[in-house]
Amino acid sequence: MKEIVSLPLGEVTVGMQVAEAVMDAGGHVLVPAAAEVSESMLHGLARREVAEIRVVREVVEDAAASEARRARLARQLDQLFRKAGDGAETRLLYQAILDYRMESGT
Predict the structure, then answer these.
(1) Which residues of the chain fall below pLDDT 50?
(2) Between the chain's N and C termini, which has fewer beta carbons within 10 Å?
(3) Would you say 55 and 4 are in contact if contact means Cβ atoms under 8 Å apart?
(4) What local confidence, expressed as pLDDT, does residue 106 receive?
(5) How distant is the alpha carbon of residue 101 from its chain centre?
(6) Phi, psi of 18 (to 5 degrees)
């Protein structure tokens, strides 16, 4: 599962993915969202005195917690899809939403 967290610049490591665009005080984009952090990027942000940025971090979840979350999400989707029918397209959409929510942590 992925989560978005704010990290002090000193804790950000090369290879992390930027979750939200980093902007300067004037509103200019210094780093776009979804960019991969590089060493030169970290030095540039430090030069501009950026204190922290929001990054995407992979979280390892134990199997029991993951299964409990999947069951909770499935119950929510069952409620949303209760009148949608049993067609192949409906099942594909249901599974796609469940997979997305499991991956995104929503």
Answers:
(1) none
(2) C
(3) yes
(4) 65
(5) 10
(6) -75, 130
55: nearest Cα among 68, 37, 74? 37
Cβ neighbours around 55 below 10 Å, total: 19
Residue with tokens 């029991």: 64
Is the four-CA dihedral 97, 102, 103, 104 of positive or negative sign? positive
Q: Report the relative pairing of strands 17-18 and 52-58 from DSSP bridges.
A: antiparallel
CA–CA separation, 59 vs 44, rounded Å? Answer: 28
Q: What is the DSSP string of 72-94?
A: HHHHHHHHHTTTS-S-HHHHHHH
User: What's the CA gap between 80 and 59, in Å, rounded?
Assistant: 27
Q: What is the DSSP letter of 2?
A: E
